[in-house]
Amino acid sequence: MKRHDIFTIHAAPFYAYRKQVILRQAQKLKQVFPDFEILYSIKTNPFFPILQTISEFGLGADAASAKEVSESRRAGIPSERIYFSAPGKTRDELEDVIGRCHIIADSFHELDLCNRLAQEKHAVLPIGIRINPAFSMEGTEGGPSQFGIDEEQLLSSHAFDDFPALRPTGIHVHIQSQILDADQLTAYYAHVLTLALRLEHLWDTKFSYINFGSGLGIVYDPDNQKPLDLDALQRKISTVFDAFRPRLQAKFLLESGRFLVGESGVYVTEIMDIKISRGKTYYIVKNGTNGFFRPVMKELMTKDQHTPAPAEPFYTCPNISQVTLLADREGTETVDIVGGLCSRYDLLASNVTLPRAEVGDRLLFTNAGSYGYTLSPLLFGSQTPPDQLWLEHEIDI
Ligand SMILES: Cc1ncc(COP(=O)(O)O)c(C=O)c1O
């Protein structure tokens, strides 16, 4: 099928995800991190065919809720490849997932909950710990965080005295996503490895896993961003990992959401009206903010500053999606693309130049595979939410 057929047959709006792009990205990760276990961060897009693809490819799961643990199991991911890590887990959630995944505690309160659950079951529970490290992604000092336990609070051989039914088996660090600099990532991995060795020594243990979290970025704006140099990354990290490997028995884990699925997805919607107001042309589309919120965030987050904050997973930048008109039209015009909600920030793109569209034409937005559907306020305005389509075969957009 040609591009225009597939994208114009199905009732808009909809998301469409391309399986072959996900497989391509997964293959790249396997190449750069050959002896790592790669975990798909389900929160980025829990669409079930994606989970099945991840499972078929042999990847594991980074689950952020008990439901995501269940979905991973349903997709065929074995328990030993599922890692449950999120702040604010409830006792019920923890009880529900015990034995179905690795649990990574995010606080002393969670360690206490897990310890009690283990004692009730007269068992010793292997537990991972999410750490808020004393370093930042830029190599400066780490700050306060709602994620994990501060490294300093764990730097004692007595850190587990209050939790006799727990056995620390792994650590998890994640401080920033959307990094496109191989040197920065390499330095970060070295810091995490150093921390792991230090804790193993203090707690007189050998970890069975070290989870480096995510960090791998993708290009959202090709005019202003350069892709992460994967060859350079592979070269640089192999030196670091080779140096640490002999001193560690742990399996290395890497999480990834956007790198695996971000580029696989597109959002397609329809122009419902075209309006000219005091010289400015507006294309009014079906389900703007309440279909695809991600480009709208740029308008919200860059209002008073030129560089958007790297707030995850709300990372955004100018031109976060490239827009294409799915119709052959003569001439061009520069327009704002807006939705139909009661907000002037229901704005998917401003001042984009496109062929001169007509009402009923469709627009396609790229980079909609991660934090697209999940992050959008789909109920706002009580319109029918977008569909999600799965494209098995290679297709050009
Ligand atoms: C702990 C953790 N791991 C992994 C991810 C996935 O990040 P990305 O989609 O950038 O790979 C996130 C995103 O916020 C996260 O918080």
UniProtKB/TrEMBL annotation:
The keyword S-adenosyl-L-methionine does not apply. InterPro entries: Ala_racemase/Decarboxylase_C, De-COase2_N, Orn/DAP/Arg_de-COase, PLP-binding_barrel. Residues 22-261 form the Orn/DAP/Arg decarboxylase 2 N-terminal domain. The keyword ATP-binding does not apply. GO terms for biological process: lysine biosynthetic process via diaminopimelate. Its cofactor is pyridoxal 5'-phosphate. One of its GO terms (molecular function) is diaminopimelate decarboxylase activity. The modification N6-(pyridoxal phosphate)lysine is found at K43. The active site is at C342 (proton donor). Keywords: Pyridoxal phosphate. This is Orn/DAP/Arg decarboxylase 2 N-terminal domain-containing protein. It comes from Anaerotignum lactatifermentans.
